[in-house]
Design goal:
Structural class: alpha/beta
Shape: globular
Low-confidence stretches: none
CATH superfamily: Glutaredoxin
Number of helices: 5
Distance between the termini: 28 Å
Number of domains: 1
CATH topology: Glutaredoxin
Order of helices and strands: EEEHHEHEHEEEEH
Mean pLDDT: 96
Radius of gyration: 14 Å
Number of strands: 9
């Protein structure tokens, strides 16, 4: 991975679940969790989203925002949010997944002997100055939010 802690976070603007454009720069001065995940309402992605939901009060107390990014369309994000009462924003990064690519979170994957291009489960913490504060490439879906809060000493 060429991105490293201390680098400027790649800037982006993507539509949220309601089609409203959201930019990383909208959160200048705040810490933001940007997490990439493969697909709405699949087992690992649901565990990850629910871990963020279940730890939401700690993120709010710390003034942190959470942005989940996949290539799912907005209507799928809406269903996912409603089904699991997710309190944070989900963004759509459609093919060719330019934002995920800029975060080195889209590329060749192997699953059950099959190779394909896909979204990787990576998480980034962006500090208030827009720099990468933490990079997680070996994500444990069921405890990602818990790990972030612990690593930032917010738990």
């Amino acid at each position: 991975m060429d991105l490293k802690v201390g680098d400027a976070a790649p800037q982006f603007t993507l539509p949220d679940q309601n089609g409203t454009p959201v930019s990383l720069s909208d959160f200048a001065g705040q810490r933001v969790v940007v997490y990439f995940y493969p697909k709405d309402d699949t087992p690992g992605c649901t565990k990850e989203a629910c871990n963020f939901r279940d730890r939401w009060s700690a993120f709010e107390a710390a003034g942190m925002k959470v942005l989940g990014i996949s290539k799912d369309p907005a209507k799928d994000h809406v269903k996912f949010i409603e089904k699991y009462q997710l309190p944070f924003t989900l963004l759509t990064d459609e093919e060719p997944c330019a934002v995920a690519t800029s975060y080195e979170s889209y590329g060749l994957k192997n699953f059950m002997g099959r190779e394909f291009m896909g979204m990787m489960r990576h998480t980034f913490v962006v500090d208030g100055d827009g720099k990468l504060e933490r990079i997680y490439t070996k994500v444990k879906a069921d405890r990602m939010a818990t790990d972030i809060l612990s690593d930032l000493e917010l738990a």
